[in-house]
Structures are given as structure tokens and as C-alpha cells.
Amino acid sequence: MSVDLKFIPLTFITSNEEILKQIKNTVLFSYLLSKNEETSLNYYLETTQYGFTASALGSGSHKLVRITDINNGKVDWNTVPFCNCSDDNKYLLRDHDILVARTGGTTGKSFIVNSPPKNAVFASYLIRLRLNKNANIDFITCFLNSYLFWSQIIEMKSGSAMPNVNAEKLKTLKLPKCDIKTQREIILAFQNEQNRNELSGLYQKVNSIEILFKDSNELSSNLNYQQDLLIQLRQSFLSEAMQGKLVKQDPKDGHAKDLLQKIKAEKAKSGKKERELPPIKPEEIPFEIPGNWVWARLGDICSKIGSGSTPKGSNYTKTGIPFFRSQNVYDEGLIYEDIKYISDEVHSQMSGTTVFSNDILLNITGGSLGRCSLVQEDFKEGNVSQHVCIIRPVQFSNRFLHKVILSPFFQKLIFKSTTGAGREGLPKYNLEQFLVPIPPIPEQSRIVKKLTELMNLCDDLQQSIQDTREQNDLLLQQVLKEALMLNK
């Protein structure tokens, strides 16, 4: 066999039933290649034709079917737009024409035309394959829905910035050369599992593959369920920690009111005039906390809450001062992949948004809204973009505040308070007013220690799930290889 067959995950083929169909078809064509001469798709083709280039219209002389009109192997002709086409003989569709997407994310996906309306043509991002007398439509359809086909398509697309195939490439696709009678009889027998001695081994192979595939998917579903439970467990630990239920209170710790006074005094030393935040109303308090805890607004316990900016002209350098954007900020810590740098001069101009060790960085816009990193202790200096907010507490455990921000109640505040059309954003004034439960410093340390232990256990469970998932994925990859063993 000259084709390197592979199991290829495809974004537009996701249902277990459809994937299994692709695998079954691969089993058949692998068998046929072992018993018959190899040929190219061109042997079965009368013509190929690129689609008609035209704008979609609300009315016109012809229906214009596009890639986007083909969904789940079907076309709702009532929703297909119109165009005006003067050369309709070249582009008209008829029964058993095959349309193949030649570009984009669905490159290679095919559609068999059945009972098209009068004057239906096809758009330019499609290629029409018209079969000759050597081809049975069901035989070719099975080929186009097998990993024998997809393995070759992926190879053709590799190395291209924009995935695409052309008519000449499609003509070279390899498949078995069978006469029309054999095509018709073997497809019918295989699809209906009719009793043919030469196919008995295939039926056994298909049955064993189906069992492996179903077992693999059942395990995958169980892993997804475990993953969801683990996420809930992490959130539960954080919720209990914020309510004072994770560790015991100790009278020797004192009262958090004293801590608030120390914070207030420390902030007064800076001489910086701050906006007075409104007093906390009873209806704002989300849950009860221990008697020696207090509620405070985030702005009351921080010396800085504010986002950065983007250097003019995206003036980045290859080395220099680390410049953190939202894609660098994760709950587990800062990610330096795709990190940008700015010069000392630009950093000096942005001195108001300098990042120091133990700062907390919070994403305040976009799809990563709410993601939050604690800057490591050995960090020197950096800066941030306008999509990232620096939170710098005073006389307070940075590690505890980081956990507060990650907790369900605080994340809920973030998402309820975003503003802006299209691209969500969290205003500084809203963030300053968010409530924070404050235990005495010794208890903050105990909570962080306990949470770290529990999250480490969750990490171990997460790794176990991931290891099992990878093993399961390998099993799925083996399914197609198992299909080929019959012919070796």
C-alpha cells in the first residue's frame, strides 16, 4: 500500500457514529487495496470543474450553493441564495455530482448532490467531481468518507499557510481499481453485512474495532465527568476557605479589625490622596464569616489597583523588561511563552505600571477575563498592557488575596461588573469596590497552606486523569492500525 494511513481527528467530524463510519470504510478500502490494483481517482472521473465566482443575491437566475450552505451532508435549498449566471452549462448541478470544499477549515469535505433544483450552480470555493461509467456513486462516497481519503488530503494540505487542494491534486488520490460490478456488489454486501465469504474477516475486524471504539468513548465520557467533578472540588475548597470553614479559628490570632487599622495607617504614610469608597451595606454581604473576620473593599486594602498601556507602535524589543499581556497571565502563574519585552526607556515612561514581585495581575478584558497570576517572589521588574490590572495589597497576604480573587464569589463579581460592547472590560472603580473577606494574618497563612495542600492533591488527580486520557487517545489511534493488520 503506497498510502500511509492514519487516524485523523477532524473538527467537522465529531459524532461517534460518523467517526466509526469513517473507520469502517477505511477497513473496506484497506482490504480492497490488498486485493486489487491501485489506481487514481482520475480513473473514475469524467470531469472536474471549479465553481462560479459571483456574489450571493436575494434573487437571480440561479441558485448558488456555497460551502456554508452544506451542513451535516445536506443542503436546505430554500435558504440557498441566488446569483446571475450566463454560462450555466459549465456550472449546472445534476444528480450524483460531488462537491468538494477546496479551501478553509473544511478542505476535502464532500457533498453528494441529489435532486438539485433547476438552475442550481456552485460557488468558487467548491470543486465539482462528475463520475464516469467506471464509477459507482456509493463506492466513491465510501472512499471520500474514509481515512484512506483523509490521509492523502492532509498530506496535500501540509505546509500550506491556507489549507487547500485543487482539482489536479484530487485526481491523483490513490484508491483501489475495481470494476463497476464489484464496486456495486461489495459495497452493498459490506454495508448490509451480507454473507460473503471473502468479507467474513472484515466483519470480524469491524466488530472488534467497534467494541474498542465504544470502550474508548465510554472511558472518555467518564474522564470528562471526573474532570468536571475535579473543577467543582477546587471551587468548593476555595468557597470554604473564603467562609472560614477550611481551618480552625484561633483566639490568639486577634481580630481582623486591628489589621485594617494597620493597613489604613500604612497607606496614610504615602501621603497619596485616595478616593473614599462607600461604606459596606448589609445587603452587599454575600455570606457569613467568622466573628474575628471583617469585610472590606478591595480598594481599602491595596496601595495600587490599575492597568497598564500598550507602547506606541507596539515598540517591543527582543530583550529587556518583560511586558505582560493577557495571554501571559494564568491562575497557575505567569507564562513566558510568547512574552514581549520593552526597552528600559519605554519602561521608564511607563513607570506608573511597573510590576514588582508578589504583585497580583488580573486580566480585565476579553475571553481570559478573571484569570489571575501571583508574581513570583524572585521577580525583579516588568510592565503590563491595558488588558491587565496590577493589584498590590498593603500589610496583607498576597497569596491569600490571590486565592480570594480566584474564588467563585469574587469571579462572579468580576463577570457581573464587566462593561463595554463586544469586548468586555472591568472598570477600575468597580474593582475597587469589590468586597474581600479578611481574616487575621496568621489565619490567612494557615488557609493558604491548607489550600496549597488540597490543590496539590487536585493536581495529582488532574495528572492521573490526563495520563489516562493520553493512554485512551493512543488506544483510539490504534483503532485504524488494527484495521490494517488484517491485510499484512
TrEMBL record:
<feature type="domain" description="Type I restriction modification DNA specificity">
    <location>
        <begin position="290"/>
        <end position="466"/>
    </location>
</feature>
<dbReference type="GO" id="GO:0016787">
    <property type="term" value="F:hydrolase activity"/>
</dbReference>
<protein>
    <submittedName>
        <fullName>Restriction endonuclease subunit S</fullName>
        <ecNumber>3.1.21.-</ecNumber>
    </submittedName>
</protein>
<dbReference type="InterPro" id="IPR044946">
    <property type="entry name" value="Restrct_endonuc_typeI_TRD_sf"/>
</dbReference>
<keyword id="KW-0175">Coiled coil</keyword>
<dbReference type="InterPro" id="IPR051212">
    <property type="entry name" value="Type-I_RE_S_subunit"/>
</dbReference>
<keyword id="KW-0238">DNA-binding</keyword>
<dbReference type="InterPro" id="IPR000055">
    <property type="entry name" value="Restrct_endonuc_typeI_TRD"/>
</dbReference>
<dbReference type="Pfam" id="PF01420">
    <property type="entry name" value="Methylase_S"/>
</dbReference>
<dbReference type="GO" id="GO:0004519">
    <property type="term" value="F:endonuclease activity"/>
</dbReference>
<keyword id="KW-0540">Nuclease</keyword>
<keyword id="KW-0378">Hydrolase</keyword>
<keyword id="KW-0255">Endonuclease</keyword>
<keyword id="KW-0680">Restriction system</keyword>
<feature type="coiled-coil region">
    <location>
        <begin position="451"/>
        <end position="478"/>
    </location>
</feature>
<comment type="similarity">
    <text>Belongs to the type-I restriction system S methylase family.</text>
</comment>
<feature type="domain" description="Type I restriction modification DNA specificity">
    <location>
        <begin position="86"/>
        <end position="198"/>
    </location>
</feature>
